[in-house]
Amino acid sequence: MKYIDKLRTIIKKKNTHLTIGIDPDVTKIPEFFFNEYSNPIEKFCENVIENTLDYATAFKFNIAFFEYFGEAGFKALENSLRLISDKAITICDGKRCDIPNTTEAYAKTYFDKLGFDAITVSPYMGVESIEPFLNRSDKLTYILAITSNKGAYDFQLLELKNEKKLFEEVIEKFINSYYKNLGFVFGASHIKYIEVFSKNHCHIPLLIPGIGAQGGDLKMLIESIKNELFLVNVSRAILYPTNPFVSRKEYLSSLLKSCKDYSEKIRV
Ligand code: OMP
Fold first, then answer.
1. Catalytic residue list
2. Is 234 in the pocket of ligand 1 (CB under 6 A)?
3. Where are the domains of the chain?
4. Strand 89-93 relative to strand 230-234: parallel, antiparallel, unpaired?
5. What is the average pLDDT score of the chain?
6. How far is CA 241 from the centre of its chain?
7. Mutual orientation of helices 71-84 and 40-52 as an angle, nearest 10°?
8. I need a labelling partner for 267 at 20 to 30 A (CA). Which of 106, 108, 171, 259 fits?
């Protein structure tokens, strides 16, 4: 099944655009996982997925946090993807790109071996640098357009001589390429640009982080999106309790509460 069809089907079934960001931060995972399990990261991910799968259309795995745990992190990724199977979209957040033969190695790992549905990439090595991802026609590649951090102003929002912003030039280059299995990442802090882009490109998937811990305005965001193929990512605001010494029962109940709450709000 093509990515867009799978995305559309799951959004309809679960009636939400919520993506849960699985960012297992060793300093924030509740203490009991470390006391009770030999592979705490695997069990942490397992508990999050099993308790939230019905309320999330997608799960985005930020590879940085998994790399920290080495082999245990890789096992946690494999186990998580097995648990999710076809019940949600899986996104590898690696922001990877390199010269083509190196990108091919990333594509083999994340698409062919692990089986992710989609990946995030940085576009600044050019179209050819992400072609190995785009050549997997049933998968989707989310290209960074404007990111949620203030560093977006360093390069992405620079104005060019033709009066376009650099990120607009990037988007145009990819949209005019031969490939159709691509989408874009917009930080939730850039509502004005999300509104314009989603109005003009209602069939291009969007991935929008920056809600929750980063403080994006969810209500305004939802009102501004004119494209049904969007996903809004929430990581820390769902994953972590304020007190890391919570009991299992308290943790699971707060996880479920915040997940259900976001799931209901991220709906059109
Ligand atoms: P929270 O701020 O905890 O919800 O996490 C946001 C997640 O989205 C992290 O995994 C970030 O790496 C990622 N992210 C951004 O925060 N901003 C961006 O512009 C792009 C991403 C991303 O590509 O996912």
1. 95
2. yes
3. 3-265
4. unpaired
5. 97
6. 21
7. 20
8. 171
Report the amino acid identity of residue 265. K
Q: Which of 221, 215, 202, 254 is nearest to 47 (CA)?
A: 254
Bridge-based pairing of strands 89-93 and 18-22 is unpaired
Ligand 1 atom 5 nearest Cα: 235
pLDDT at residue 1, rounded to an integer:
80
For the chain, helix (H) and strand (E) counts, in that order, are: 12, 8
Which mutation among 235, 240, 262 tests ligand 1's pocket best, with the greatest number of atoms within 8 A of CB? 235
Burial track 79-90 (b if 16+ CB lie within 10 A, e otherwise): bbbebbeebbbb
Distance CA(88)–CA(19), nearest Å, equals 9
23 CB within 6 A, ligand 1: yes
Nearest CA to ligand 1 atom 8: 209
**CATH number given to 3-265:** 3.20.20.70
Task: Say yes or no to pLDDT of 244 above 90.
Answer: no
pTM of the predicted structure, to 2 decimals: 0.98
